[in-house]
Structure formats: structure tokens, C-alpha cells
């Protein structure tokens, strides 16, 4: 007669612990928050500035209520205080802002984005966080493809914001979709801008590849999502995003080489090679920029960006210390921005460079705070990726593919920030706050108070932290 015991070898396998409905709903809300960050411009194109603002502010209010109810364990001393210092300085600029109404409105967006980043990092574990990012990216890219198919097959002409078909030609910069999906031109997705779609598609390739390497369920579908992301990335045809992809490849190779080091000092030669590649690549980009940008259909001045930088720097030099006042993005109805810099007949809404933009708004003090914010993020994310998980004497724990995400995101944002100001808002700023704060709160995959809290919420027994 067969005898069963409680020994793990002979005991029948137990079914997996089912997640509570509340936690499933919480994770679904986090996916919506992340989707709104990736495709936030889509809300504005669909429902106007007022509708987009309601979605952003309403989402922030919901997350604040959930945070007060859930109360995830947080080490307050481990919050991303440097990033919060940047937010505080932006708030202080209300005292001297040349455009106080724009400062107040855009500060609300900055507050909501920062809050959402801290909220998602606090209530999800590392694995849930990466999974939620992947789900949000699937929605953003999937809806972008469906939207472009709808415009190309059913509408047949370009579409203006508000789902308005346009039969008479206008400047292409005004279109939500240019109906280019079937004719080989650049596509814009629900973001309404190819330069916004391309980095999101690149981020999706990174996240899906990481989940594939981590042996996530339904890996075959992940390959399909990687293929779709690559297709949208190529069709968006953003020169800056192509350079960001190259930077991601260099960082990834360097991290993987660093992980092979076994002896003290062995990483030194990799750091030297990494520095040589960085310096050499930067020099090649600068001196060969005409041929490089011509190859991707761009002018050597990055499609007029040098002229924009010149005008912005001239105004910034008038208030170099504290700047003119926070406004990210620039609001076109503010007199100081309306008609100041015009491109294709439209008022420009950003400096097309993170550092130039911050210098204009918050002066050298703001630039210094942002440099410290990125430096802290890059430092922590780098060693989060290259060091083995270790909290005791054991030094042979395997690396997790998930730990690659923060440092690869940093590479995308740094390169993107050279020609765009978008890393200062929406998903760019949210990921800096979210991933940087998560590393400080839970510096090892699967370890930390937030992981314990989420496990308890799912009905799992609590276990002591290592």
C-alpha cells in the first residue's frame, strides 16, 4: 500500500497560491498608470488638453487613495531624495517664474508623474513591476498598430487630433496619423509623433527580451511582441532612437562582460575598453555626423535643433543661476512661448535637449540637481546589473535578467535626452523615479519589504528577510 508523507519528495504537489482579487485589481491599475505614461500624448490627441489633464490628475488621485489604504512598507530614508530635490527646486521656481501659470500647471503634471512612479515601485515586487511594464507596453504598441490600421484601411486619409479625417492637405506636423502604414512612410502610433513612438518601441524590445531571458510564461508570444516592437521601431525611423539602440547594445555587452569577472581588478580592463568605445563613438558621431544623419534621412544639425538650442541658450543666459521658471513642456498659449520659436508654422514646445531645457527653466542649480539625479540613478542601476545578489557571505547566487532593465533604460534616456526633452516628463521621468527608488528600497530581486507585503497580499505565508 502506498504511503504518503509530508516530505517534499513524496508529498503530492500543491497547487500554486492564487492571487487575491484585490491584488489583481491593483496590478491592473498599475498597468493602466504605466500605459498612460507611455502613451500619454494619445489621451491629449483623443480628448484634448482638458481630457488628458483629467486622466492624469484623476489617475494621480486614485493612486494616492490606494497608497493610503494599502500602506506598503517603505524605508523613507531610501526614497530617491535627489530626484525629489529636483522637484522641490522646480516648485520653488514659482517664486520667480516669468510664466507662473505655466509653472503651476506643469508642476501638477510633474507631481503626478513622480507620485505614480513611487506608488508603482512601492506596491509591486520586481517581477511584478517588469511584468506590468511589459503589459503596458503591449497595450501601447498594440493600440498603435490597430490605430494605424484603422486610419490606413478604413479612413484612407490622414487624421487630425479628435479623430477628425483631413482630406485637404495641411502641414504634416499637425496630423495625429499621416496614414503612412501602407505607403512606407514614418508612422506615429497613438502618440501622434514618430519620435515618441520609437523610444517606446525600443523600450518594449528591451523589456520583452528581458522577460524572455527570465523564462517568463508564453515565451513564443514574447518573440512575436519583440518582432512587432522591432517593426514599429523601424517604421518610426527616429535617428535619435537608432543611436539609443546602439548605446543599449554597447551597455548590454559591457554588463555581460563585467559579469564574467572572477578576480579583483579584472573589471578594470573592461572599464577601460568601455571608456574607449564611448569616447571613440562620441568622436565618430561628432565628426561624421553629416554622413551618419544623411544615411537616416536627417540633416547634420538634427533637423534644425541647433538653431533651437542657440535661441534657448541666449534667453537662458539672461537668468543663468535660477532660470526663468519651470515649464515642462512649454505651454503654447503662454505669451512668452507663443510664437517665440516656430517650426513648420507651429510654436515649439520644448528645447529638444534635456540639459538646455533645464538650464532655461531652472538655471545651473536645476542642471546640477538633474546631473546628480541621473548620476545617482546610473550608479545604482549599473552595480545593480553587474554585481551578484549578495546579502550574506554567499557570493555565487545567479544573476537575474531583470536586473538589466534599469541600466538599459538609463542608456535610452541619456541618448534620447540629447535631441529631445521628453525624458523630463511622462515615462522618462517616471522610470527614473520608479526604478531608482525601487533599487534603493529593494536592492535585490525577490528581496525586500515590498516583496514581503505583496506576498502576504497574495495569501502566501510571510518569510523572514535575508
Please explain how this structure is put together.
The structure is a single chain. The longest helix has 33 residues, at 354-386. This protein has 15 helices and four strands. Mean pLDDT is 86; it is low at 3-11 and 452-466. The strands form two sheets. Strands 1-2 form a two-stranded antiparallel sheet. Strands 3-4 form a two-stranded antiparallel sheet. Helices cover 61% and strands 2% of the residues. Helix 5 crosses helix 6 (194-213), helix 8 packs antiparallel against helix 13 (405-419) and helix 12 (354-386) runs parallel beside helix 14 (426-441). Strand 3 and strand 4 (346-347) form a beta hairpin. The protein is an all-alpha fold and 466 residues long. The protein has helices at residues 21-38, 40-70, 81-92, 100-123, 126-155, 194-213, 219-236, 239-258, 268-287, 289-295, 305-316, 354-386, 405-419, 426-441, 449-457, and strands at residues 159-160, 164-165, 342-343, 346-347. The two termini are 42 Å apart.
Question: What is the secondary structure topology, with strand pairs?
Answer:
Layout: H1 21-38, H2 40-70, H3 81-92, H4 100-123, H5 126-155, E1 159-160, E2 164-165, H6 194-213, H7 219-236, H8 239-258, H9 268-287, H10 289-295, H11 305-316, E3 342-343, E4 346-347, H12 354-386, H13 405-419, H14 426-441, H15 449-457
Antiparallel strand pairs: 1-2, 3-4
